[in-house]
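Thread: "does anyone have the structure for this chain?"

Original post by V.I.:
We have the sequence but no experimental structure in hand. Need at least a predicted one for the grant figures.
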Amino acid sequence: MSDLKIINARVIDLRFPTSREQIGSDAVNVDPDYSAAYCILETDHGPNGYGLTFTLGRGTELCVEALRYLSHFAVGRTLSSITDDLGAFYRLLTSDSQFRWLGPEKGVIHLATGALINAVWDLYARVEGKPLWKLLADMDAEEIVRAIDFRYITDALTRDEALDLLNQRKAGMDARLAQLQKTGHPAYTTSVGWFGFSDEKIVRLADEALAQGWTHFKLKVGGEAQDDLRRARLVRREIGEHNKLMVDANQKWDIGEAIERTRMLSDVNLWWMEEPTSPDDILGHARIRREVPEVRIATGEHCHNRVMFKQFMQANAIDVCQIDSCRLAGVNENLAVMLMAAKFNIPVCPHAGGVGLCEFVQHLSAFDFLRVSTTLEDRVTEFVDHLHEHFVDPVRIRNAHYVLPDKPGYSGEIYPETLQDYNYPHGRFWRDA
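Reply from O.Q.:
Generated one for you, tokens below.
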């Protein structure tokens, strides 16, 4: 690996027309076209690295341009010069004295940072001949901690605390790995309950999911109050009282309404309420949690960075931490948040779906169980059954569990034909649309 050099970064604006079937629709994002700013790190010999950040269509071009700029920090370098100090590479990308002003560490430039870092980790794992989860699980605690930027979070988690936690919880990893290899990691489905689906479609999809072994179901809410309650009761009736039902408002409500609506929907025995208000409103989430204690509060897919997650935890504002493999700045920052969640004893239930998010987060969930949380209690990873056919190493689900990936890399490689056909705006599909 020492002489493997990154010689080019291809960046592609990749978009799929999912809005035509209302796939991914919710109360706020009514017409999403699942999309990605996609990065291929080409090397002078050996494998390439594949990374992306997820978007919903319009605006993807902004992430693409940011990613093209940031890729200059990787092109021309040997892979080992990056992987010898992954934390330094992270700080390099997030500390450009002028570009940083556009964030810092949030928004378009942070999404682009995530895509590039994900590509680097994918390349690293491919060179090592390991799936990413195993690359991480095999690392010494010191190596893992060196990949993390502890700036701004030491009041919640210090480097020494992270080291101690990783060292202590490595015990029993072989048994946990055997468990994952046998049963997989628990998952939940969102595919049955998109906002634009008819009652008939929801019922049909719920029945099909039950037959496939699903036990955790999520429904999109945020419409008229009585209609939300009616649809929630419909799903509860179909899945039975013994299965778990979660709802997701996708940031729809102000605080007062969020409290009222969460309390109303508690009638169907919710396992959690997700994103009831602005994803930036830490104190608002804390108030909702205090005033409706019978319902757990979940958020995180739009949480900008490790600093916001820190404050959500410190403020007792969330019961469920929903990391996102691409909203945060790739693997490095997700490591920081998983470790903070372990210290605060908050379950990590990653957000997934979209383009490639399921492929990515299955690795993070496996690592969290093997080395960080060491438990599957109250842990489920989101699954959305769309667009996996475009990936060379797609997710595999068996009996509502993620099957542990076994191919080297971060599972982010997309078929060349897909990149050609769905490249926006010049791909075959968009030219002919």
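V.I.: this helps a lot. The chain has two domains: 6-130+418-432, 166-415.
O.Q.: and The domain at 166-415 is CATH 3.20.20.120 (TIM Barrel).
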